[in-house]
Write a structure and sequence with these properties.
411 residues; alpha/beta; Rossmann fold; 60s Ribosomal Protein L30, Chain: A; 2 domains; ten-stranded mixed sheet; 14 helices; 14 strands; 19% strand; globular; binds guanosine-5'-triphosphate; binds magnesium ion; microtubule; GTP-binding; GTP binding
Length: 411
């Protein structure tokens, strides 16, 4: 695949660590050799035989990355390239403007210049470059603001390669009063420049009393499984074919129309007896998720579905086929389901998992919520000066409102 992963901010780096642990452990279980891994997510340096993850770790403070790296020897098999670790000492205080403009910070633009410089070098290290994925939150100052600026710079420099964002949305209650503004400002920029934005929603509406790194671990494992389910390469032994460019596949499936670039995703790797059970597990997960997003089964609408099955493709002598998936979905949605396109990819291996990525009205419900919450605050001028302090202007808000409102009218 030859892609580069950018991990941005605390959330992006913590999710990234779980993702690399899956690359270490299950890429091989999914039937790939270490050379295959090298074609996709890692690179071996021939001079010292060290294998490096193809990632760039970016954070505006070094605490999180330092503590992750302190544990890496226990946790991960390979190495992060030291020059690809880009940190500063001043977090962006949950403020999009502070991340995007860097405001009055002395190292103006530094983090962007350094990231793009290392990105160029990383791209040149591989034989081909097909695109990149970014992991980030949309409510932290770094995750929202630095990511917004980076997608502009990446798109400017790599106009044709694909760019997929894995954007973690916040708990509905309990993060910061700026979270809706940050999400609105970030998603308008990131949606514009990316081929697809995979919205990764917090599973529960309410933030646990103490959402510490360790409580995030389980959540991050689930998030990493979704990302791995979508991005790990597809093996087709019959045709001796290795699809190295899953990011391109995601872009082709979902970037068919500007209004359809928001994607949701869920995945299961629990033991299931047959593929039917796997599909049912995903649909049950969806039910819980929809409840949290205030979508009832009645108003939930699927528009486009990409299903990826990995493992024993004849599980219990019952192959996973499009018509089989269609039958289960029709049964589940009954008359409410229109005929929506289904893409199916399958990959033979010894470890079983099923992942689905889909466009649905859940993204619209989520966007409407942040739009409405932000507009209510903006109408009374709440917190706007916190952004103006770091060079943002009301124009930034106006253009984000306009962009999202226009998008909503097409969704
Ligand atoms: N799923 C998940 N969410 C996280 C994690 N860490 C933080 N968050 C969420 O991310 C949002 C805050 O973003 P962070 O990533 O902490 O912030 P940041 O990007 O480092 O930005 P600043 O610290 O403001 O500079 C909140 O909604 C948190 O609940 C994590 O490891 N996993
Ligand atoms: Mg931070």
């Amino acid at each position: 695949m030859s892609c580069v992963i950018l991990q941005i901010g605390q959330c992006g780096n913590q999710v990234g660590q779980q993702f690399w642990s899956l690359v270490d452990n299950s890429l091989i279980r999914h039937g790939y050799s270490t050379d295959d891994a090298d074609n996709c997510f890692t690179l071996t340096n021939p001079s010292n035989n060290q294998r490096y993850y193809r990632s760039i770790n970016i954070d505006t403070e070094n605490k999180v990355i330092n503590s992750l790296f302190a544990n890496n020897n226990k946790f991960l098999k390979f190495n992060f390239r030291p020059c690809n670790v880009i940190t500063e000492k001043c977090g962006r205080g949950n403020n999009w403007a502070m991340g995007y403009y860097q405001g009055r910070l002395s190292h103006r633009d530094d983090i962007f210049e350094r990231t793009m410089q290392e990105m160029r070098k990383e791209v040149e290290r591989g034989e081909t470059f097909k695109g990149c994925a970014i992991f980030h939150s949309v409510s932290g100052g770094t995750g929202s603001g630095v990511s917004s600026r980076l997608v502009e710079l990446i798109r400017d420099e790599y106009a044709k390669e694909c760019l997929i964002s894995f954007a973690v949305t916040p708990f509905e209650n309990g993060d910061t009063p700026l979270q809706d503004y940050n999400s609105l400002l970030a998603l308008s920029k990131i949606h514009f420049h990316s081929d697809a934005v995979v919205l990764i929603s917090m599973i529960s509406n309410n933030k646990p009393a103490s959402a510490t790194t360790s409580t995030f671990n389980d959540l991050n494992k689930m998030i990493a499984e979704c990302i791995a389910g979508l991005t790990f390469p597809i093996n087709d032994y019959e045709n001796n074919y290795l699809n190295e460019i899953m990011l391109e596949k995601i872009a082709k499936t979902f970037n068919t129309d500007y209004a359809n670039k928001f994607v949701s995703c869920n995945s299961t790797s629990q033991q299931f007896k047959n593929w039917g059970d796997g599909v049912e597990t995903l649909l049950n997960q969806l039910e819980t998720f929809n409840k949290n997003e205030n979508a009832t089964q009645e108003n939930f609408k699927l528009k486009q579905l990409l299903m990826i099955g990995r493992g024993n493709l004849q599980l219990n002598k019952e192959p996973l086929t499009k018509s089989f998936i269609n039958k289960i979905l029709t049964n589940y949605f009954q008359s409410r389901r229109s005929t929506m396109p289904i893409s199916l990819l399958q990959s033979e291996g010894s470890s079983t998992s099923l992942t689905m990525a889909f466009q649905s009205n859940i993204s619209k419900i989520y966007l409407e919520k942040i739009f409405k919450n932000s507009l209510e605050k903006f109408a009374v001028g709440a917190y706007v000066h916190w952004y103006e302090r770091y060079e943002a202007t009301v124009e930034d808000f106006h253009s984000a409102f306009k962009y999202i409102q226009n998008l909503l009218s097409y969704m």
